[in-house]
Amino acid sequence: MLGSNREVMWPRLVANKILRKSVGSNNFVADFPPDTDQKLLEASGLVDERPSFTSKSILLEQHKTTHLNYKVFVSTWNVGGIVPDDGLDMDDLLETHKTPSDIYVLGFQEVVPLRASNVLGSDNNKVSVKWNSLIRETLNKRAVAEPHRDKDLSESKGINSIAQDFRCIISKQMVGILITVWVRGDLWPYIQHPSVSCVGCGIMGCLGNKGSVSVRFQLHETSFCFVCCHLASGGRDRDERQRNSDVNEILARSSFPRGSSLDLPKKILDHDRVIFLGDLNYRISLPEDKTRLLVKSKEWNILLENDQLSMEILNGQNFKGWQEGIVKFAPTYKYIPNSDLYYGCITYKKDEKKRAPAWCDRIIWYGGGLKQHEYTRGETKISDHRPVKAIFTAEVTVIRRGKKIRNFFFSDRFEDTVAVDSKDYSWIST
């Protein structure tokens, strides 16, 4: 009788879980409402309003396009179900003391253990609140005075040129996957159209123990999309094929709202700047003993020649157009927690899987407009994974929309009406 009840309950639990998962929704936590108020945009200088003039004056729309570069920090970390304590030092991960950035994007995997109760139950948002609290504290305790990136705009509009506290614009959790995005306070008015899209690729091909949480937003006129993934695990050939299938599903099923009157990007690859981050779980296609020997001797080049993700990017089938920085750090998986020893290098139980070292945790990007300056790993040891982080310069298009004043003057020297700048009419004869 008990078995019969389980057979009935399982489909119901799965169906309820699927129905509760929204795709392309704005159901996320942030420091401000999803739709930025137009008056706030005007006050921050996006729209230049001038007083009205007499009937002899007209206002002509004038657009000036410029490009700004912003520093973007991206990290990924599989924390192995460990709930952070108040004493966790996030400085090693965020590097705010070393390279302050304008935007911080942090992706986590397994923020909760991937057991059935977490996969089928409600998301444990208390964990994400804890992580965000630590991030906020770390970013803002090191907030330093820094000139506004858009100097002309700040001076003309009277904007404070000192960097403000960092604000969270998006934070979204799906089971164990969490992504959270933070920007400098003085960039906050220029953030528009934040949205999220969740894709489950786990149990039955749809549950959230594996999959992605994608976030997008627009900074000035440039759209960004960050995809935090946890792909299928395992070192067998069919596991690699499943990872490739997960990537295809994420690209196909992720979708964002276009907006009522705006032609916003709908799919991941439609955005101007796209970054994949996460526990992508790709392994090294070599015998385990050989892999361990090469890791011990730090033969990264030989290992990377046999790294599954590197080969996928090179072959251009599942990752056509994608790029990755040069990997110069040791494999990030699998460690004995709170140690520098790889799992399996000491006595282990007979039935336990050895799990050879691998670069499971990666950050890759698609398209132009991004320049990577750093690609490395952290050394926080509480998990069986080491965090990976990258720093990019992202080019952003800015259109300053203003209204140019033109006055009409009549002169005996000219038969037709001429339009001149109201501030420059010294040439007219008196």
Explain the overall architecture.
The chain has 10 helices and 13 strands. The protein is of the alpha+beta class and 430 residues long. The protein has a single domain, classed as Deoxyribonuclease I, Chain A (4-Layer Sandwich), CATH 3.60.10. Helix 7 (237-253) links the parallel strand 7 (222-230) and strand 8. The model is unreliable at 4-9, 33-56, 144-148, 151-163 and 408-430 (pLDDT under 50).
Topology:
Elements: H1 2-20, H2 38-43, E1 57-78, H3 91-94, E2 103-109, H4 116-120, H5 125-141, H6 151-157, E3 166-174, E4 177-184, E5 191-200, E6 211-219, E7 222-230, H7 237-253, E8 273-279, H8 288-296, H9 300-305, H10 308-315, E9 322-323, E10 361-366, E11 370-377, E12 388-409, E13 418-421
Parallel strand pairs: 1-2, 7-8
Antiparallel strand pairs: 1-12, 2-4, 3-4, 5-6, 6-7, 8-10, 9-10, 11-12, 12-13
